[in-house]
Amino acid sequence: YHGNTLGALAIGGNAWRREPFLPLPLTATGNNVMAPSDMAAGFQTIANQGLHHEPYFVEFVAKPDGTRIYTHEVTGTQVLDPGVANATIATLKGVIRSGTGSRNLRNFPRTAAGKTGTQDNNTNAWMVGFTPELTTAVWVGNPDKYLPMENIPEFVAAGVDKVIGGTFPAAIWKATMDAALFGRP
After folding, report:
1. Which conformational region is residue 121 in: left (phi greater than 0), alpha (psi within -120 to 50 degrees), or beta?
2. pLDDT digit string (tens) for 18-64?
3. What is the pLDDT of residues 75-120, one digit of tens each?
4. CA-to-CA distance for 33 and 94, rounded, in angstroms?
5. Integer Cα distance of 35 and 47 in angstroms
6. 129, 126, 134, 46: which is closest to 83 by C-alpha?
7. Which of 87, 88, 97 is nearest to 166 (CA)?
8. Nearest 5°: phi and psi at 42?
């Protein structure tokens, strides 16, 4: 897994034609080309009290009789102080309860934390969040151009004149999390 290359390819373009990643202070709110997998990997580190696990694609491989011939194992790396991660979690809970994500997430039935983000001119919109069980990142935008998501007929018909992180990305995040965690305590 190579975050920047995968990120460029994962959103539908050629890694060599994309703008380079710029380490700007507003990266987490959508001003750089980042893959949802990169955003989810960063947020899972916060959710895990600073313990980072590299993303992977295969959990296990089993024979037809159920015998496992491969199981992914990882110990993780502590990259943040747990106190710092916990303070961040406390702040990110507010985004869902009363902040920018609350329009669609105020009544989310689980303990959750997250961050919305919208790039200048509404060209990219994000919702990245987690529960104790799962971290999910949602990105809405055009993978090849910076096109403003304003007055788009399909969005307007759904009651949204201007797409921001707290609108469609938050609603998609909620629907995904509801389905993924259905039936789990």
Report:
1. left
2. 455 555 555 454 455 678 888 999 999 999 999 999 888 899 999 99
3. 899 999 999 999 999 999 999 999 999 999 999 999 999 999 998 8
4. 26
5. 19
6. 46
7. 97
8. -65, -45
| pTM (two decimals) | 0.77
DSSP-assigned states of every residue in 43-78: HHHHHTTTEE----S-SEEE-TTS-EEEE-----EE
**Residue 181 and residue 110 in contact, taking contact as beta carbons nearer than 8 Å:** yes
**Number of C-beta neighbours around residue 79 at 10 A:** 12
Instruction: Locate 174 and state its tokens.
Output: 């909620």
Neighbouring CB atoms inside 10 A of 165's CB total 28
Q: What does the alpha-carbon distance between residue 120 and residue 130 come to, in Å, rounded to a whole number?
A: 25
Taking the CA atoms of 171, 177, 180 and 184 in sequence, report the sign of the dihedral they define: negative
